[in-house]
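Hi F.,

I've been meaning to write this up properly since the lab meeting, where we talked about keeping a consistent format for the predictions we share between groups. The idea is simple: the sequence comes first, exactly as it goes in, then the structure tokens exactly as they come out, then a line or two of notes. No screenshots and no reformatting. I'm using this chain as the first example so we have something concrete to point to.
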Amino acid sequence: MRECLLIQARFQKLAGTIVEKIIADHLGDLEYRRYDQIAKRLRVTVEEVIEAVSVIQGMEPKPGRNYSGEETIYATPDIYAYKVGDEYEIVQNHDGMPRLRVSSYYKDVLESRDASGKSARNYIREKLASAAWLINGIEHRQRTIYRVAKSICRFQRDFLDHGISHLKPMVLRNVAEDIEMHESTVSRATANKWIHTPQGIFELKFFFNSPINTTTGESVASESVREEIRKIIKSEDVRKPYSDQDIEKMLKKRGIEAARRTIAKYRESMGILTSRRRRQRY
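Output, unedited:
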């Protein structure tokens, strides 16, 4: 990255400037926003450092990605959850899925007196059975997905009405017991399946959350805790960001018992930097 930024700095005719010196020797301090230390070592003002940093922030640390062939892949909902009256109705998305059927031609061949020999008839009969088995299997899978989605919507009614902060703890076993199927069947049915809800589009596996205890003895979904952490950090003073320990105390006041290491794990999973790296002193 240092080399990429140096090339861009020299291309912009910034060789020998504060910009080049920061890139060459002070990226570590820049990462942690230690602008005062950079200013002291370069014998310049903090204002000059901040001005140079704004130039560096406009550079591309990974120039090759502008020429990559990657395309954005959008999630197409497999299921839609619509609120009709006081209930949620599940509608499956069958777009792009042709309706499978067996051509009547082969049935006519079997029933025809002029049909080929016994071996040919047995062959056709075998393939017809295989085709029927395949079609039934696909239809059974669609029914399973429907039942799983319906069960999830029953468990997560508060989420559908009010959003992520109302997401309930739920595991595969809850749905499996509700629809009387094996957990592995539920797991396969939810793999790479997306649902469109009033709160947005989510992968079905999003709704399975481990429980976090509260001070009242109840439980909240881990995703709800992540949302609370996100809200706390969003409201912080950027000059004095909250540490994980601060967030732990704030969550406790809201009735959520979450250890500091759990908060750190959730924060990292959301791509949020540590308080030291979030701090903006100037």
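Notes:
Residues 118-155 form the longest helix (38 residues).
The chain has a mean pLDDT of 89.

If this format works for you, I'll send the rest the same way.

G.
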